[in-house]
UniProtKB/TrEMBL annotation:
InterPro entries in the cross-refs: DUF8137, Znf_C2H2_type
Organism: Halorubrum salipaludis
PROSITE patterns in alphabetical order: ZINC_FINGER_C2H2_2
Positions of the C2H2-type domain: 3-21
Stated name of the protein: C2H2-type domain-containing protein
Annotated stretches, region: Disordered: 29-51
Domain of life (superkingdom): Archaea
Record field: compositional bias (Low complexity): 32-48
């Protein structure tokens, strides 16, 4: 459905693009963001520009807290602008971190709060405006958006079932995993909740994880861990499939021992399945197991299948006779 601007008549595919477009002479006085064409060109100092962007980000987040939903769309744009300026200002990354970490949790929380109230369309709108494949540069706000998507995905799976998860949510997290720069550890970590989509009738999480295991082992393994909490029977099927696949032949270097096969590393995903004291750490700032009063108990047949898999592959050779799942941790 197209959305048309009442002032200039231009049409946009999403509400976010409509809200954020520069409407020529008719520029809204409600918001003044770093993307506004009226910003003074004299603000040439990156530090001055960043300070203004951060101040505007605070202002917009405060407006959202006061009930102005549109302000949050602009806040995400302003966050992106402030991060971009920080990168230009300081190649060491210190300035970027000074901007990113103080706002990462707050913006993620606000996106989650807005989605709870206004539903999936709100978050889908934000995704459309910051698509990780739409521009040449990977959006710097991606971890924040992926965090909110991960929360929504987990909550939806537990409360309404896998069929209720929008395909777009799964496609987004998988796209982030595929396109995130190798240096963007935070974005790569925020996609782990993708595992909660296992068994979706219209999106094969299994196929997508299998396709990127060799290139993305550090993201796939914790994603499989999440999958166990979503559907342990489907997850153990996936784990067996991956561990037995001889085409997954990468290795991890170790200083004092032989290199570790990727297929052995994958078994790290079962580390916490037999204890109540360990839960997946992503999405950040979100204890889903507490919020949703989630209980998990590993089925005995699933446990035995994992044990049989370890023995079948010979990965028990350096374990004690009474090894536990914690001994499989890396």
């Amino acid at each position: 459905m197209a959305h048309e601007c009442d002032d200039c008549g231009e049409s946009f595919e999403t509400l976010t693009h409509l809200r954020l477009h520069d409407c020529g002479d008719v520029q809204s006085d409600t918001f003044s963001t770093s993307t506004d064409s009226g910003r003074s060109k004299s603000d040439s100092s990156p530090s001055q520009k960043r300070n203004k962007e951060v101040a505007e980000l605070d202002n917009l987040l405060d407006r959202f807290s006061d009930g102005d939903v549109d302000a949050l769309h602009y806040a995400v744009v302003e966050f992106e602008a402030a991060l971009s300026t920080a990168v230009e200002e300081d190649s060491s990354g210190d300035t970027f971190r000074d901007v990113f970490w103080p706002y990462y949790e707050r913006v993620s929380n606000e996106l989650d709060d807005a989605t709870r109230v206004h539903g999936w369309p709100f978050l889908a709108d934000v995704i459309d405006a910051h698509e990780p494949t739409e521009k040449a540069e990977f959006p710097l706000v991606t971890p924040t958006i992926a965090n909110a998507v991960g929360r929504y995905l987990i909550r939806t799976r537990i409360t309404d079932g896998v069929e209720a998860i929008p395909v777009k949510a799964l496609e987004y997290l998988n796209t982030v995993a595929v396109n995130a720069p190798e240096s963007d550890d935070v974005a790569r970590e925020e996609v782990h909740a993708y595992g909660w989509g296992i068994g979706h009738p219209n999106h094969s999480v299994v196929d997508q994880l299998h396709a990127r295991t060799t290139e993305d082992i550090f993201s796939v393994s914790p994603t499989v861990e999440h999958a166990f909490y979503a559907d342990q029977y489907a997850a153990v099927d996936l784990l067996e499939q991956l561990v037995r696949d001889e085409s997954i032949n990468g290795t991890l270097p170790r200083v004092t021992r032989d290199d570790m096969p990727y297929r052995r590393y994958l078994l790290d995903c079962v580390y916490g399945l037999k204890t109540d004291s360990h839960w997946p750490g992503m999405p950040r700032y979100y204890d889903w197991y507490d919020e949703l009063d989630y209980a998990f108990e590993l089925d005995e047949t699933v446990e035995q299948r994992i044990r049989d898999l370890v023995e079948e592959m010979g990965f028990d050779a350096d374990l004690s006779n009474d090894w536990t799942f914690r001994d499989l941790g890396i």
